[in-house]
Amino acid sequence: MVTQRITDFLATRRPDGPCLVVDLDVVEENFRAFRRALPDSAIFYAVKANPAPEILKLLASLGSNFDCASVAEVEMALNAGVTPARISYGNTIKKERDVAKAHALGVSLYAVDCVEEVEKIARSAPGARVFCRVLTNGEGAEWPLSRKFGCVPAMAVDVLSEANRLGLKATGVSFHVGSQQTDTNAWDAAIADAKFVFDALAEKGIVLTLVNMGGGFPTRYLKDVPASSAYGQAIFNSLTKHFGNQLPETIIEPGRGMVGDAGVIKTEVVLVSKKSKADENRWVFLDIGKFGGLAETMDEAIRYPIVTPRDGDEMEPCVLAGPTCDSADVMYEKTPYPLPVSLTVGDELLIEGTGAYTTTYASVAFNGFEPLKSYVI
Ligand code: PLP
User: Fold this and answer.
1) Mean of pLDDT over the chain
2) What is the 145 CA–ligand 1 centroid distance (Å)?
């Protein structure tokens, strides 16, 4: 969303080169909307979405907790002013020495999805709380996170039993329904799976208390998406359907939904050309591409809204590509992107919905291009 504050910032500061501008007022509004949507769930912001210190500090001051994927992210959250009790080490894939470092920093909540990971935590963070991630099918998500993370619910029972046997606190179940999840009912099957694991462990005398319902809350790109209140209602209905009046403690870990629409990337048209006179589509090359931060255009998964100074002119489908000497650096070709026929070299474009998963994906110096600059206002 190009807010007035972003427009004013770009007009007065005129930063050179591609850059991301994030409006903290939008982040704050998103945080409050999540609070209203799921008032009984603790919010653990997924730091990976955008770890800018200003964002972490704002969220810390609003009462957010933090889902971290690495020791570096744990340190970022601590630097934002939160205690380790407000941090979850949510990556299921950790080096044992990183578990030891996080333990030394005071982190006591860890994700696992197999016995091998449980053994590392038992050795390097004795007595820690662990939750086991279960697989989801990722249907309805534009950026699925299935397959790589999680185990089947029956195995989660074994993993958490082993955690308990090794002296850890088997605390709960987690899942992620896939990022940019457009189906508000996608949480239902995973909550049913969590209940299955709760019941199976209760039979063994192990009482779980926590369901970590992950991220997945969308940002509006080209298509409208349901409001966070609709997600809140659907999730609450599923929790009561499966857990009755014995609701567990719950966590959500929004990343994209917290910061995506707060950011806008300013970019410039470097070249407009055709491959032959008969070429159907013009090629529009920008000064940012897949390696400059727009990695989520991979497989054309995320289609960002683009504002041009010539909106209102006649439009035609264009191939949209980045500036590097890598032929993979083409963003939209299978489904060309409609842009004004009059678009020309030097025009500045605004790519909306780019507050999440951009700065951290940008390469440090591929082809000598600087990493994506970021301004948080
Ligand atoms: N939690 C975990 C464990 C994740 O891996 C991710 C994203 O990769 C998130 C939360 C944030 O997901 P989203 O950006 O879809 O909200």
Assistant:
1) 97
2) 8
pLDDT of residue 280: 85
Q: Do 212 and 173 form a contact (C-beta atoms < 8 A)? A: yes
CATH number of 90-254: 3.20.20.10
Residue ranges per structural domain of the chain? 90-254, 261-376
What pLDDT was estimated at residue 143?
86
- Global pTM reads 0.97
Best substitution site from 132, 253, 360, 361 to test ligand 1's pocket, by max atoms within 8 Å of Cβ?
Answer: 253
Which residue has its alpha carbon closest to ligand 1 atom 12?
215
pLDDT band, residue 277 (cuts 50/70/90): confident
Place of tokens 């982040």: 27
Same fold, 90-254 and 261-376: no
pLDDT for 76 beyond 90: yes
What percent helix, strand, coil does the chain show, rounded to 5? 35, 25, 40
**140, 177 Cβ separation under 8 angstroms:** yes
Residue 296 Cα to ligand 1 midpoint, Å, equals 14
- Catalytic pick from 19, 132, 151, 325? 325
Mean pLDDT of 202-227: 97
Superfamily of the domain at 261-376: Lyase, Ornithine Decarboxylase; Chain A, domain 1 (2.40.37.10)
Calculate mean pLDDT across residues 349-369: 97
